[in-house]
Write the structure tokens for this entry.
Amino acid sequence: MLSVMSRLRGISAGIWISSLLLAGAFGIGDAVAQPMPGGGRSGGPPEASEPAPSHTAPGEDRAPLATPSGAESNSTQGGRAMDIQPVAAPKPKEKLDLENAIYLDLTYGRVVIKLHPEMAPKTVARFKELVRQGFYDGLVWHRVIDGFMAQTGDPKGDGTGGSGQNINAEFNAGKHVRGALSMARSSNINSADSQFFIVLGDSPHLDGQYTYFGEVVSGMEFVDQIRKGDPRRNGSVPYPDHIVRMQVAADVDKTEQGNPNASGAAKAPKKAASKAKKGAPKSE
């Protein structure tokens, strides 16, 4: 009796092993990977070290489905809803307040400046007054240091002149980053007059030390072309470029308002050329 039972157990075991071998040979069923002690799967690294796809949103462990149009599907996948991160709409281009915008015409093209009366009201008011008087037309860029700043606004052309009316300092939170406009001054903080500079490269050491009052919003590539001076001579420019014309945008005729990037060099007043000649340093 015992021998019969032993034979039956052997036959059953043989049939069970044969069925497993047949299933593996013909791909019947999927073998499930067994968890490893470290939390990974047999034959692979731990799950914690597996990077998620770079295009998935935070918290996602797989990429969203793509629709025929190329957009990502927000349907369920793997038994859960896909969380698609909304894409922010591009910000509309800021509309300039023409009363607080300046058109600065250089021989290279037009520079558009946005003034900040909320930061420096007295400085902006005086600056616009001088612009409307034509004070800056034809003046030279007498001090230009590459990567630092370009300075102008002196009718003498050597950094010692001005309009004759000082403006008290209005130091503010404005940052002296590339494109910023700020008032030049001497060691006296209330000595600002008509001279100003455009920052060519970020200069945080000027913050809170000079009156920031505006920024270039277009045409900085033309400012970059202004002839540079010798840094060993404090940036003095022997053959300087000049301002063709400056205007408050609100005063410009409607045809030019429709094209603020159009150069005004061709329409520059005749006095600009003579003023530039008078303000330029004498050649030896």
About this structure: The radius of gyration is 36 Å.
